[in-house]
Write a structure and sequence with these properties.
Layout: E1 15-25, E2 33-38, E3 59-62, H1 72-76, E4 82-85, E5 88-91, H2 103-107, E6 113-116, E7 118-121, H3 122-130, H4 133-139, E8 142-146, H5 154-166, E9 171-175, H6 181-187, E10 193-197, H7 203-210, H8 215-227, E11 232-238, H9 246-258, E12 263-268, H10 274-279, H11 293-304, E13 309-310
Parallel strand pairs: 2-8, 8-9, 9-10, 10-11, 11-12, 12-13
Antiparallel strand pairs: 1-2, 1-7, 3-6, 4-5
């Protein structure tokens, strides 16, 4: 039952649910960073690269590419949710009891069954990210909390941010903005950088693409921009046919200029997360094309005409 390559030790401090921890990252904030991915998300974006982040509960990923068909998992499952089909083990999620022991995971010698989401204590998480404190100091890096939506576990997130601050570790939060205002307010003094994912300005279209309108998101973006515009980098997922049309790009450019948000980071769609859908029992969404370099240059040009710099955080 591993997350990020290590099983979390036991502790009595408050717990949060984490589905991955990545060290030595360089794309989610300045410098060398540790990325902490929290479970749970209120949106269901059509292009989501981490579908295992949506549910707040733990779930089993079945990675058939690793499977050697030894069927030990089937023998270990106490609810009979795994059965042989054409020589391969198949997980019937309707029968899976999500038993606390996850005997099927423990029985698999190839790690073809893994758990998405493990409980970590606050103390153990802070100890884990503090191991790289010299890298943060030497590179101007820090810790980035991502997801899912980190504010879906607001109490744990706020405690983790405070723990990092006590050690002098710079912090960033990647958020979709669908969060309680009180939690945003409490987090703001503890966060050095908000990587604010913003997809679509039109509310009805936003609901169609993500499952929720963007009223709360816009309100929180305006609130943060009023308090600390220099802490915000807008992240625009560039998904051809869904978010890249002239009307949407123009509206985002106008919004960023109005709110004095100086930087927008373009995040080109990629299909790397698509295999995860089948691994957690979800149907694969439509697969749009990846944006061409010329398309990214066009969007950057629209933003830069409004005085908005395009580039990473």
């Amino acid at each position: 039952m591993k997350v990020g390559g290590a099983q979390p030790p036991l502790s009595s401090s408050p717990k949060g649910r984490i589905f991955d921890i990545q060290h030595y990252a360089v794309h989610d904030g300045p410098g060398i960073r540790t990325l902490v991915f929290l479970k749970g998300c209120p949106l269901a974006c059509a292009w989501c690269a981490n579908p295992e982040s949506r549910r707040s509960d733990r779930e089993v990923r079945q990675i058939l590419a690793r499977c050697r068909s030894c069927l030990r998992c089937a023998g270990a499952c106490p609810s009979g949710a795994i059965a042989e089909t054409e020589g391969r083990p198949r997980l019937d999620r309707r029968r899976c009891a999500m038993c606390g022991g996850f005997e099927c995971v423990a029985a698999c010698p190839e790690h073809a069954l893994i758990i998405a989401g493990e409980e970590w204590s606050l103390d153990d998480l802070i100890a884990r990210v503090a191991k790289d404190i010299d890298f943060y100091r030497n590179s101007g890096g820090g810790v980035t909390f991502s997801g899912g939506e980190p504010f879906a576990q607001a109490e744990f997130l706020l405690a983790a941010l405070a723990g990092c601050k006590r050690l002098g570790i710079p912090t960033a939060v990647e958020t979709c903005g669908q969060a309680a205002r009180a939690d945003i307010l409490a987090a703001e003094p503890l966060v050095d950088l908000f990587l604010f994912d913003f997809k679509v300005v039109d509310s009805a279209r936003h609901r169609k693409l993500t499952g929720a309108d963007n009223g709360v998101i816009l309100d929180n973006l305006r609130f943060l921009a009023d308090r600390a515009p220099g802490k915000i980098v807008l992240r625009l997922p560039v998904v051809p046919g869904l978010t890249d049309d002239e009307n949407n790009i123009g509206a985002i450019a106008a919004l960023a200029a109005e709110l004095r948000v100086a930087r927008v980071e373009l995040c080109p769609y990629h299909p790397l997360g698509r295999p995860k859908y089948a691994e957690i029992g979800l149907p694969e969404p439509p697969d749009p094309p990846q944006p061409l370099p010329a398309e990214l240059l066009r969007i950057a040009g629209v933003l830069e005409t409004r005085g908005i710099r395009c580039g990473p955080a």
